[in-house]
Design a protein that fits this description.
With 236 residues, the protein is α+β, with helices and mostly antiparallel strands. The protein contains eight helices and eleven strands.
Length: 236
């Protein structure tokens, strides 16, 4: 498969041209318009510091249908104890910085560069990128962030400093998305952690069909105004 170099025009090659590992193109920029266009076409940026911007569309795709959320008995016990206070968009920059700095197994660095942080901070100001935070004694101890476009949530990264914090934040997010009629959560890459929650692998073509229809719906930033009250009242 050819590797495409992007130019200034807002256009991407079709994801079917991606290499076996999902690599599709490089170059371009991280403007909000280009990032939104990428996600609507099943493409996302992922690159190391010092490298050119690289764009990916893996096949198969790891996704979670909100209504298929699985919660283990041990995690359900944690949820019922309400050990964490879950909030939305109260510390977006802190969450993404923590995601960038948190050490991960088998990773020596981070793909969340300063360019990525700036780009997603702009998307947050537009009401498209959101953070879900877990607090304990008023201290941020875990969370995640991603993009909400139409009726799709594109998950990006998560972190925790206290055991189960990011898991609890994720469960609250999935429950909320299900109530709001979101059709799919894009996990991008498969991990054992996400598969335990009921995530599954689907063919890229099927993923693109779902995303095309779900992203065609109007982006409704008001969807997130009731998140905090929903989380405080949810029964597990």
């Amino acid at each position: 498969m050819p590797v495409f170099e992007l130019c200034a025009d807002l256009i991407f090659p079709h994801p079917s041209y991606a290499e076996e590992d999902g690599f599709l193109a490089y170059g371009g920029d991280l403007t909000s318009e280009r990032i939104i266009l990428a996600y609507k076409n099943g493409i996302f940026p992922w690159f190391n510091p010092g490298d050119p911007i690289m764009w990916w569309s893996p096949n198969p795709r790891c996704v979670l249908f909100p209504e298929k959320l699985k919660v283990s008995k041990s995690l359900l016990t944690v949820l019922k104890k309400k050990k964490f206070t879950i909030k939305c968009d109260s510390a977006f920059l802190e969450v993404i910085v923590h995601c960038a700095k948190t050490a991960r197994k088998k990773q020596t660095g981070t793909w969340i560069t300063n360019e990525i942080i700036d780009a997603y901070a702009n998307l947050h100001k537009m009401g498209i990128a959101h953070s879900i935070e877990a607090y304990q004694n008023d201290k941020l101890v875990g969370g995640l962030y991603g993009l909400a476009i139409g009726k799709v949530f594109f998950g990006e990264s998560m972190f925790y400093h206290v055991s189960d914090a990011s898991k609890v934040a994720f469960c609250h997010l999935v429950k909320y998305l299900n109530v709001k009629g979101y059709q799919i959560i894009d996990n991008q890459m498969q991990t054992e952690h996400l598969m335990r929650f009921g995530s599954e692998l689907i063919d890229r073509s099927a993923f693109l069909d779902i995303v095309k229809k779900a992203c065609a719906e109007e982006i409704n930033t008001s969807n997130w105004t009731g998140f905090n009250s929903f989380c405080s009242n949810i029964a597990w």
